[in-house]
Design goal:
Blueprint (H helix, E strand, L loop, with lengths): L2 H19 L4 E9 L2 E9 L2 E10 L13 H18 L5 E12 L2 E7 L14
Parallel strand pairs: 3-4
Antiparallel strand pairs: 1-2, 2-3, 4-5
Length: 128
């Protein structure tokens, strides 16, 4: 990954974290690593934990950033979320997977939050 892409990704994660905090979420982990996999943000509000994949683009030339979360990434997120919940989760918590799409353009920054972007069981294997 190039330094420019890394910087764009880091910017997107900061924007997403700020956006989620403004909506009452508390960031409990950033770039949580589990082996070679990671979760960009893990946020909590009340009794709910969201594992958040942040996708950042400079434009929509390659489509919506959220569409870049394919079945492989979903599977990785699910596995990493299981590790995190085994280590840090607690009774009574509800878990979900969200995607935050950040579009950075000369016109400004747009954020789109897809709550419950996919169910955990959907990512268990490659779809038929």
């Amino acid at each position: 990954m190039t330094t420019d892409r890394q910087a764009l990704g880091a910017l997107g994660e900061r924007v997403a974290a700020r956006w989620l905090r403004a909506r009452g979420w508390r960031v409990v982990a950033q770039r949580f690593r589990s082996g070679h996999r990671d979760v960009d943000l893990i946020v909590r509000r009340d009794g709910e934990v969201a594992f958040v994949e942040v996708k950042t683009r400079r434009g929509d030339r390659f489509g919506d950033p959220a569409s870049a979360v394919g079945w492989r990434k979903r599977r990785e997120l699910t596995r990493s979320a299981q590790v995190w919940s085994d280590r840090f989760g607690g009774p009574g918590l509800a878990y979900r997977f969200d995607v935050v799409a950040v579009l950075v353009s000369p016109a400004g920054v747009r954020v789109r939050h897809l709550e419950n972007a996919f169910p955990a069981h959907e990512s268990a294997g490659r779809p038929a």
